[in-house]
Amino acid sequence: MGSVEAVSCKCNIGYSGADGGTCGACPAGSYKPLNGDDACTLCPPGTYSNITARVQGPCETCPSNNSVSALASGSIEACLCVPGYSGPNGGSCSACPAGTFKSLNGSAACELCPSGKFVGETGATQCEECALHMISIPGSRSVDACKCDLGFTGTTNCSACSAGSYKAANGSDPCIPCPANAFSPAASSALTSCLCDAGFSGPDGGACHACGYGAYKVKKTIYMHIYTAILKSTSSNDCIQ
What is the model's pTM? Predict the structure, then answer.
């Protein structure tokens, strides 16, 4: 004898709904192995299913050990390479080589470590900072790539070039004294930082010559007066009106 009540009608496997009601197919990313009103079971993270009305689990595993998918993923393209690995969505994921990194899930390419950073391991999610006052070229793979910045000198610890000197290249080379009768601030990074002393005149970074009779110089500006009785004058007090 058949069932006489609508509630006796239960949704088949792969379909879900209230007993005696409408049954809907389990969407991709889920399955249901039993008859009844149970909800469809969602594919867990790291798996997927592109089948509707699926009746059995488990769902397919993402193809790479280094890829991940969200809960209830409905296609293989939902499998994304994890940070530190790169490849097409749903495909094979390769570790970022030394000197590069990748910080997010997805198919984006690994990025070079920026200037001033490095990483020596593969599969990196971030790069390490060079020590204070050190710089490295993009894509550096070792702390040995970190060199003293412009205006600083040393090997493992970088010190500022003293006042009156400069250094215009990265590395461990010594600081270079300014030309005669010129001076620069500490940590100067260019020859043009060497400015002629008071009482001397010349181009920034160039030869400095003593101010002649009839002129004086306090800092960078030459003041022409009627007459000064001394060379290398640094003050208007030396001028004879």
Answer: 0.75
